[in-house]
Design a protein that fits this description.
Order of helices and strands of chain B: EHEEHEEHEEHEE
Shape of chain B: elongated
Number of helices of chain B: 4
Number of strands of chain B: 9
Oligomer: heterodimer
Helix content of chain A: 25-40%
Number of strands of chain A: 19
Largest sheet of chain B: 5 strands, antiparallel
Largest interface: A-B, 18 and 20 residues
Radius of gyration of chain A: 24 Å
Strand order of the largest sheet of chain A: 3-2-4-5-7-6
Number of helices of chain A: 23
Radius of gyration of chain B: 19 Å
Distance between the termini of chain A: 71 Å
Strand content of chain B: 35-45%
Largest sheet of chain A: 6 strands, parallel
Chain lengths: 564, 163
C-alpha cells in the first residue's frame, strides 16, 4: 500500500497508522463515539485489552511502555472515559513515559455545545501532556498520529493525547502515511557538547569523593551498560532513584541503593560528603534532595539530562551536559580516567557495614513485609516487580536487588495509588515470558481491584502480592511519628476477604499468615500460571526505615525499626 | 527585573492557552502579552513581558522552548530593541478645557481620535514611560476609561528574531 493511496474511513485510517507505528496492543474501553473505531478493531490484528475502568487503560499502557521501551497506547471514549484517563496521563507525564492516549470526542459540530459526554480533554490535559491534538480534519489524521508517536518517544519522553471527534472517524480519506515528521518547534538534542564532556572528565579525575546519582533517564535512554562501565572505570559509587532502579545492577559492589527520604543511610551520607556529584537522567526531586540548600552542599555537580529545562531547575549545577545519556556516557568514557576514590570507597564500605538496611526479626511467626520482598527476590530474581504507592513500594525498592533495567515499575513522581495492578497488566501483556508481580498494599489494591476481571477474562497471569497490614500504612506511619499516633482515617482493617474476592473473579486466591507460608505461597502462585492474588497478612505497624523527615537535610535520618 | 521575550509560535488554535497555561502552572508573572500574525501567516509572534531574576528568565525560556508549538524564543535586550505600546484614553472634557488637553496631546505627539461634547478619546503610541507620563497629565481631567495594548518589540538592525 506504500506509495499508493486507498480510500477509507478515518477509523480504518487510524488503525492503519497504529499498525505502521508498530502498535500490537491497545488498552481501552468502548463508548458511543468510539463505535466506528471499535468496529474496525473487531477484525484487526491489533490486540485490544478491555479494561474495567479507563484509568487502568492508561496505567496499563504505561506498564507496557516501561517493560519494553515501546510507546504504550490507550483508548477511551469522550467525556468521562477521557477524564478517567487523566490520572494515568499525569502519571506518565511525571515519570516521562511514552504513551499515546486516544480519546473519542463528540462530533465536531457539537464541540463547545456541552453535548452529551463532552469534555474538553485537550484543555484538561494541556498541563499533563507533552503535547496534545484535537483532530479537526480527517486529512490531518495520519500526520497527527505520526507526530504523536514521534513526540511521545523522542527527547524527554512523555504522554501525547489525540482527541478524535466522531465525524473524523467516519469521514473518508485517501490514506497515505507520511514518511517523516516535520516539526520546526521540536528538535531534541541527542549529542552532548564535547567541551562540556571534557570538562566533566577533568573534574572526575580530580575528584576524591565522587558519587553517581542516576535516575529514570538512564532507563529511558537505554544507558545502563554505559553507566555501569563508567562507574567501574572511574570507581565511583552509584545511587539510583526510585525510577532509576535496575539502571545499575543492585548486586554490584559499587551500588548504594536509593537516595533520599527512604534511601539508605550510606547513599545519603555519600551524597552529602561527596565532592563531585554526577547526576544522570535525574531531576533533583524533593523526595531525593530533602532540604535543597544542604543537598550535596560541598559537591560540584555534573548534570546530564536530555531536557534542558531540568538543568538548574532545582539545584544550581556546575557542568550541565544536555543530550542523550547513552551518547554522553559513552563519550565521557572515552575522555575520563579514574577518580582518586580509593579511600572514599573504603569509607562507603564502612558505612554499608555500620548502617545496613535492616529490620527487626519477629519473635513469633508473624510476617515482616521486608521478608516477603526478600523471598520474592530469592524465588524469582528476574521477575518484573511492579508496585503501588506506599510502604510496600519503598520496601520493594529497598529489599529487592534489581539487576536489569525495566524490571522495576513504579509510580515515582505522581505517587499514584492504584497504579501498580493495571501497570502490571501492561507489563505482563508486553512480556509474557516474565513473572510479573504487583507488590501491593491493601489500600492501593482497592483503588483498581476491578481489574481482576480483566486479567481473568484475558488470562493475563499477573501475581498480586498484597501486603495486608489493615492500614493506609505510609500515612499511618506519618501519623505515628508526627501526629501522636492519631490514626485519622487510616485504618482499613477487614475491608474485604481478598482471597474470596480473587475467587469470585475466577482467579486463584492464596492467604499467608505465617512466616513459613510466605515462600510456598509465592512458589504456588508462579507454578499455577494463573492470575493469582496472595493476601499476605503482615505486621500491621511496621515502619519504613530509615526515614528523612520532609524538609530535613538527607543526612538527618530517623531510625524507625519497630522493636518487639 | 523585567524582560521582554519575543516568541515565535505556530499560528494554530490553542497556542495562546498553552503558553498562558504554562506561565500560570509554573507560577511566573506576565506583565503583558501581545500576539499577532507575522510576515509568515503560519507563524504568530508573541511579545511577553515577564518579571523575574535571571534564573526565572532562564526557566521561562526553557519551558517555553519545551512547548512543541513554540518555534523560537528570544530575550530582547532594551539597548538593541525598539518597543512600542499603544494606549487609548477616554478623558472627560468640555469647551472649558478642550484646548488645554489638545496642547498636552500635541506635546506627546498623541492624537485625538474621537470628540464628544463631554469627552474625547486620545491615542498615544510610545514606550511605557511616555504612556505613563501622559496618563499622569490626563488624570486631573478625569480618565473615564483607558486601554493599553501591551508591548510589542522588534530587534534593531537587519538581523531579526526569526533569521
Amino acid at each position: 500500500m506504500t506509495g499508493s493511496t486507498e480510500r477509507m474511513t478515518g477509523a480504518r485510517a487510524l488503525l492503519e497508522c497504529l499498525y505502521r507505528e508498530g502498535v500490537d496492543t491497545i488498552f481501552g474501553y468502548p463508548g458511543g463515539v468510539l463505535l466506528p473505531i471499535y468496529d474496525e478493531l473487531y477484525n484487526s490484528d491489533i490486540r485490544h485489552i478491555l479494561v474495567r475502568h479507563e484509568q487502568a487503560a492508561a496505567h496499563a499502557a504505561e506498564g507496557y511502555a516501561r517493560a519494553t521501551g515501546k510507546t504504550g497506547v490507550c483508548l477511551a471514549t469522550s467525556g468521562p472515559g477521557a477524564t478517567n484517563l487523566v490520572t494515568g496521563i499525569a502519571n506518565a507525564y511525571m515519570d516521562s513515559i511514552p504513551i499515546v492516549a486516544l480519546t473519542g470526542q463528540v462530533p465536531s459540530s457539537l464541540i463547545g455545545n456541552d453535548a452529551f459526554q463532552e469534555a474538553n480533554i485537550t484543555g484538561i490535559t494541556m498541563p499533563i501532556t507533552k503535547h496534545n491534538y484535537l483532530v479537526q480534519d480527517v486529512k490531518e489524521l495520519p500526520r497527527i498520529i505520526k507526530e504523536a508517536f514521534h513526540i511521545a518517544s523522542t527527547g524527554r519522553q512523555g504522554p501525547v493525547l489525540v482527541d478524535l471527534p466522531k465525524d473524523i472517524t467516519t469521514d473518508m480519506i485517501d490514506f497515505s502515511y507520511p514518511e517523516k515528521v516535520e516539526l520546526r518547534g521540536y528538535s531534541p538534542t541527542y549529542q552532548g557538547n564535547l567541551q562540556q564532556i571534557k570538562k566533566a572528565a577533568a573534574e572526575i579525575e580530580k575528584s576524591n569523593n565522587p558519587v553517581i546519582y542516576a535516575g529514570g533517564g538512564v532507563i529511558s535512554a537505554g544507558a545502563s551498560a554505559e553507566l555501569r562501565k563508567l562507574a567501574e572505570k572511574i570507581q565511583a559509587p552509584v545511587t539510583t532513584t526510585l525510577t532509576g532502579m535496575g539502571g545499575f545492577p543492585g548486586d554490584h559492589p559499587l551500588f548504594m541503593g536509593m537516595p533520599g527520604m527512604h534511601g539508605t543511610k550510606y547513599a545519603n551520607y555519600a551524597i552529602q560528603e561527596s565532592d563531585l556529584l554526577i547526576a544522570v537522567g535525574v531531576r533533583f526531586d524533593d523526595r531525593v534532595t530533602g532540604k535543597i540548600k544542604s543537598f550535596a552542599a560541598s559537591a560540584k555537580i555534573i548534570h546530564i539530562d536530555i531536557d534542558p529545562a531540568e538543568i538548574s531547575k532545582n539545584v544550581k549545577v556546575d557542568i550541565p551536559i544536555v543530550g542523550d545519556a547513552k551518547w554522553i556516557l559513552s563519550h565521557l568514557l572515552k575522555y575520563t580516567g579514574k577518580a582518586r576514590s580509593e579511600d572514599w570507597l573504603r569509607k562507603i564500605d564502612g558505612w554499608k557495614e555500620q548502617y545496613p538496611l535492616h529490620y527487626i526479626e519477629p519473635v513469633g511467626d508473624e510476617i515482616k513485609p521486608q521478608y516477603i520482598v526478600e523471598q520474592i527476590n530469592e524465588v524469582c530474581p528476574d521477575a518484573i516487580i511492579v508496585t503501588e504507592v506506599g510502604q510496600h513500594q519503598m520496601w520493594a525498592a529497598q529489599y529487592f536487588k534489581y539487576t536489569e533495567p525495566r524490571t522495576f515499575i513504579s509510580s515515582g513522581g505522581l505517587g499514584t495509588m492504584g497504579y501498580g495492578f493495571p501497570a502490571a497488566i501492561g507489563a505482563k501483556v508486553a512480556r509474557p515470558d516474565k513473572v510479573v508481580i504487583d507488590v501491593s498494599g491493601d489500600g492501593s489494591f482497592q483503588m483498581n481491584s476491578q481489574e481482576m476481571a480483566t486479567i481473568v477474562q484475558n488470562n493475563i497471569p499477573v501475581i498480586i502480592a498484597i501486603f495486608n497490614n489493615g492500614y493506609l500504612g505510609m500515612v499511618r506511619q506519618w501519623q505515628e511519628i508526627f501526629y501522636e499516633k492519631r490514626y485519622s482515617s487510616t485504618c482499613i482493617r477487614d475491608s474485604v476477604d481478598f482471597v474470596k474476592l480473587a475467587e469470585a473473579y475466577g482467579a486463584l486466591g492464596i492467604r499467608a499468615t505465617k512466616r513459613d507460608e510466605v515462600r510456598p505461597a509465592i512458589e504456588r502462585a508462579i507454578a499455577s500460571g494463573r492470575p493469582t492474588l496472595i493476601d499476605f497478612i503482615v505486621e500491621c505497624e511496621e515502619n519504613v526505615s530509615p526515614m528523612v523527615p520532609a524538609g530535613a537535610a538527607i543526612n538527618e535520618i530517623l531510625d524507625l525499626e519497630r522493636k518487639e | 527585573m523585567r524582560h521582554t521575550l519575543s516568541v515565535l509560535v505556530e499560528n494554530r488554535h490553542g497556542v495562546l492557552a498553552r503558553v498562558a497555561g504554562m506561565f500560570a502552572r509554573r507560577g511566573y508573572n506576565i506583565d503583558s502579552l501581545t500576539v499577532g500574525v507575522t510576515e509568515d501567516p503560519t507563524i504568530s509572534r508573541m511579545t511577553i513581558v515577564v518579571r523575574g531574576d535571571d534564573e526565572v528568565l532562564e526557566q521561562v525560556t526553557k519551558q517555553l522552548n519545551k512547548l512543541i508549538d513554540v518555534i523560537r524564543v528570544s530575550d530582547l535586550k532594551a539597548e538593541d530593541t525598539v518597543e512600542r505600546e499603544m494606549a487609548l484614553f477616554k478623558v472627560s472634557s468640555d469647551v472649558s478645557n478642550r484646548s488645554e488637553i489638545m496642547q498636552i496631546v500635541d506635546i506627546f505627539r498623541a492624537r485625538i481620535i474621537d470628540v464628544a461634547p463631554k469627552s474625547m478619546i486620545i491615542e498615544v503610541t510610545g514606550d511605557e514611560t511616555k504612556i505613563a507620563a501622559l496618563e499622569q497629565l490626563l488624570r486631573p481631567f478625569g480618565i473615564k476609561e483607558m486601554v493599553r495594548t501591551g508591548k510589542v518589540a522588534l530587534r534593531r538592525g537587519a538581523k531579526g528574531v526569526s533569521s
